[in-house]
Design goal:
170 residues, globular, TonB/TolA_C, Fusion Protein Consisting Of Minor Coat Protein, Glycine Rich Linker, Tola, And A His Tag, Chain: A, Domain 2, membrane, transmembrane helix, 4 helices, 18% strand, 4 strands, 4-stranded antiparallel beta sheet
Amino acid sequence: MLTIVNRRPPILRAHGLWHLVSFGALLVTGACTFTPPERPSAVTLPPPAAVNSLTLDQYRYAVAQRITERNPSYVLKRAPQAMLRSLVVVAFTVNRNGEVVSSSVYRTNGDDDAEATALATLRRASPLPPPPPKLLNRLGQVEMMEDWLFNDDGKFQLRTLALPQAQAFD
């Protein structure tokens, strides 16, 4: 024989209030909400890339200054002309000591002389200033790019240091 045990308190069974109490408990727990703690907004925290970007910009500026200091006869002293002879983008890798360990033309308009000048002026500037440790990758190097802006006379400015380009043709 099976016996069923009713676990409801006798007073609630006697007066049929069990359903009313259950419904009330449901209302009370349903009214409770969980509010997660606030996360800091994106506005208050800088993105991870921005933490290093200022340092990278400063290092890029120091590298550009070194290139122009070591190659004064190739550097354009006035604003680049309106229609450039050539734009050469060079990709290069610098080790922790400032030595250029690799360099190559990344983009060009096909001007072989301008490409050769860009690569040669980078080599002449080596060693470059040592990069800040926080910019180094796991190999102890930093990879960069710089733009050489060439006028018709073969002189250049680096985009990092360049004066605003002329607006009218000479």
